[in-house]
Write a structure and sequence with these properties.
By secondary structure, the protein is an alpha+beta fold. It contains nine helices and 16 strands. The protein is globular.
Length: 439
């Protein structure tokens, strides 16, 4: 069977290479990373219909992506993925400059400048990259990356004919490009992709991506209309789940959540889904480029997290987080900041993390920040998944602790309403209209 081709383009720096910036890193985009992102968005979509039925979720995920032979709970006799994916030619990989005469990234002109004072500009991109990918002190990078604008192709073909699985896989890829990304720091705007072309090569496309709708596969997303992270193609894809075998069939298209979802789930009106599962919104400011959008996002994010004026500190802006002042170094035991992801590092010898059975774990940030194209310019689109702090497998046996020299020193509490309140506050900060203010 011949390969079908999806044409893709990198929109923001994509960090998918290894940790050694001087090593052999010719592979800038890995198929496994694309499939990993597709699985995440598949689960978020499936959760709208399947709810907390993890057996049904495993069945469908195995049907679309395959499963490991050792996964005895997969609920599907087939182990091999029904669809093969391939990147026939890698886009070029850019390595961080290591000498003064090396070419600097055009999107990071302060590269190598010690403590740049061009406030509110490129240093905030490095701030969003985090300590693993960049050094804020001199605006340098630690990892190789694929430059924005680089095109590449993603090929796919079916091992056997399963139009339902193919339709859900293509919707998962569409979601990855519309709302997420691949590689490191996708939740802070990096690793973005967009679909620029689609060549079925004679393959009959399944719903919702049939021949009459192929153009919408690469059409711009109407981000301004989204306050709950649900777009038209997903609604039609959800109908596929109703055609499952009897023991996985669900009578309704939308699951009504009685409790907070245990994993990220796309959002619909609470009138349909029972409760809010996402908060989303498009910022009001426009920017000439993606990097200007992320510069603004980094500056706003820093001031949103650290809102307490603190004169005399040896850095700019002269602010600290309320949690550092009142919780870490005060008597308060509330740690709302933890709702935005754990661990949270304060100093080399002080951090806050979640301990499960005494072992350090982590929770990826539920809040995403994405620069998106909008009528020839760029704007910030942001959303948060209102899911549980930790999955149900932890059985509640976890503690949030202040760790000093990696030893627990103080138990903290993350208020259950913190994530919803913080995400709405952040949407107001970027000038978006939160869902709670629609009416």
């Amino acid at each position: 069977m011949s390969w079908s081709t999806i044409h893709l383009q990198v929109t923001t720096p994509l960090f998918n290479a290894g940790h050694d910036p001087t090593g052999d890193q010719d592979t800038g985009i890995r198929v496994s990373s694309i499939l990993g992102a597709m699985r995440f968005w598949f689960r978020a979509m499936a959760g709208v219909h399947l709810g907390p039925d993890l057996a049904a979720l495993r069945y469908w995920e195995a049907r679309v992506f395959g499963r490991a032979a050792s996964d005895t709970a997969g609920g599907n006799d087939q182990a091999a993925a029904p669809i093969q994916w391939r990147i026939p030619r890698q886009p070029p990989v850019t390595r961080p400059p290591v000498r003064p005469q090396d070419k600097k990234p055009t999107w990071l002109p302060s590269y190598g400048v010690e403590k740049p004072r061009d406030q509110g500009e490129d240093r905030w991109i490095v701030y969003l990259l985090g300590q693993g990918l960049g050094n804020l002190g001199d605006c340098t990078l630690n990892r190789s990356y694929v430059e924005p604008g680089q095109p590449f192709q993603l090929w796919f073909r079916q091992r056997h004919n399963d139009p339902q699985a193919l339709g859900l896989a293509l919707t998962s890829l569409w979601l990855t490009c519309a709302f997420g990304g691949i590689g490191a720091r996708t939740r802070r705007g990096f690793g973005g992709l967009r679909i620029t072309g689609f060549e079925p090569n004679g393959l009959p496309l399944p719903s919702p991506w049939d021949e009459t709708d192929t153009m919408s596969f690469k059409a711009p997303v109407e981000y301004s209309a989204l306050t709950r992270l649900m777009a038209k193609p997903m609604g039609r894809s959800l109908r596929v789940f109703q055609n499952a075998p009897d023991h996985h069939r669900k009578p309704a298209t939308v699951h009504r959540w009685e409790a907070t979802p245990p994993y990220p789930v796309l959002g619909l009106s609470p009138a349909l889904s029972g409760r809010e599962t996402t908060n989303a919104g498009l910022g009001s400011d426009t920017f000439a480029s993606w990097n200007e959008a992320l510069q603004a996002a980094g500056s706003m994010w820093r001031l949103f997290r650290a809102s307490e004026d603190t004169p005399g500190v040896p850095y700019w802006p002269k602010v600290k987080t309320p949690e550092w002042l009142n919780t870490i170094n005060g008597t308060d035991d509330r740690f709302a900041l933890g709702a935005l992801g754990l661990p949270v590092g304060f100093k080399k010898d002080c951090s806050v993390n979640v301990l499960i059975n005494g072992e350090e774990a982590r929770r990826a940030s539920p809040l995403w920040i994405r620069p998106v194209p909008f009528r020839g310019e760029w704007r910030l689109f942001s959303f948060a998944f209102l899911s549980q702090l930790l999955p149900p497998e932890s059985h509640g046996n976890f503690d949030v602790q202040v760790l000093r020299d990696q030893r627990p020193s103080k138990q903290l509490v993350i208020p259950p309403t913190a994530l919803a309140e913080l995400s709405l506050g952040w949407l107001r900060t970027i000038g978006a209209r939160p869902p709670a203010e629609e009416r």
